[in-house]
## 1
Amino acid sequence: MPSNRLKLLLVGAIGVLALVVVGLGVVYVTLRRPTAAPSAAMIEVSDTACTPNSLSVAAGTPSFSIKNTSSRAIEWEILNGVMVVAERENIAPGFTVELTPRLQPGSYQLTCGLLSNPRGTLTVTATDGSLTALPKPPTQVDLVAPTAEYRVYSIQTADALTRATAALRTAVNGGDIPTARAQATAALNAFYGLEPVIHLFQQDANPLTTGPAALPALTRSLAAATPDASIAGLADVAAKSAATLGGSVHTTTAGPREIIAGAGSVVADLAKGFDDPTVARARLAGVRKVVELFRPLTLRADKSLATKLDGDLSTVETTLARTPTPAASAVQPQLADLGADMTDLLSALGLNVT
């Protein structure tokens, strides 16, 4: 059962986030500038028309690449009757812009430059080819609970990191290397459990990720039969850095887009390759926590995505748990699939940025 302190913390976190949603709205930080997908629909807008003038795309978040081939600045819009669903304004001659809106199945109109130009048509179909509407993404209020739960998790994990590094320092100073090794592993797991949001605390986290006091480096140094005499000073640096990081985590609330996009960035980085399977497993554990907390909303928004996401994540975890651990290259295709799932999750929850 959670302690009274954690219950109060959760209630307080939910209250704070609710006030933010009601009073100010939720501000989502874009971690990366969106780019056009390889399968983006290509449209050219001349002085007189759009080419093509009629197109069909799948519902969700299709991408459009609009090139202005006319002699003047133009705008391109997707209309549902008189309502503008998505638009790009002031596209300069010769320039190409991208747009990735969330679209429900249905029939839409396209404006093509000048209002006097003929309108184009856009048909958006569901996966079964129908025009049946997609489930609506969760509201900002729906996102409050899992976001607050992640805040509690991140505080607990930061506290575990602080305790482990302090115990590591004590063990090293006392010459108890076996205990120091165990605490280094615990610290490593706790730190990477925070990785989806660690970009928010880059300055505090740097000593734990780079240089001789970095947790992976400390772990390797302690694995030696006789650790170097400098290990005591490095353990002290790690303990102090972890305490500083923990203080920052206690006073910071990450938004849902920051959390999910951060987890997706972890997967994307792992897909580029990794040297240490133990670290890779710890990093994936942090991703799993994000997936689990937002799963109820994922099931409601897109059940097929929830199923695929669970399956792809479990496949990667199972592969990395094999003995002997396969080479990183053997897991990269599976990680690429999981990375695509995390991108789709942002869209399903209405957190994609156009």
## 2
Amino acid sequence: MLSKSIVFLLSTVACTVKAFAPNGVSSLSFTTVSSTLLKASDFEVDVIIPPSNSGLQAQMKFKPILDVPSEIIEVRYKLPFGLDVAPKNNLAVVTKDGAGGEKVGDVLRYTSMWSLGLPQGDGLVSSAAAFSGGIGWQCSLFDVMRASAWEQVIEALVSNVEQRTDEVVLLFERPLADTE
């Protein structure tokens, strides 16, 4: 039975990226949503799926990619938003601190992405819409590490437009501060 929670069990692979830096920044929030002290520990993160009033939540579990202890930082921007990310060692790395809380050196792991698809769920409305071919815009979380080309990352980021949503969600992996 499907519920309002969407469960993702995701793994990571390396990708090749280029640079991305759109203009215009409007911050909504900055939250540390999980941390790990050992490289082998998985991140377990609950993320509210856009738009902000959707009521949908993704329960995610994925492995860290950094070779040092790290944490996941959730950043939400009102639209339009700005982001300074560039390629470094096959990762999408933040090059300039952002108003939403991302910091230089953070690695972009996930972004909200909109695509056309059939309605999901186990209710009468979603079943009827599926049989009638009713498609609509749906939001998911795009795994930046699975992108085979930078264009896929760009498409995911720019799919977050005001006609579909009021915010974009970005998950960054950040090295933990030295605790010595």
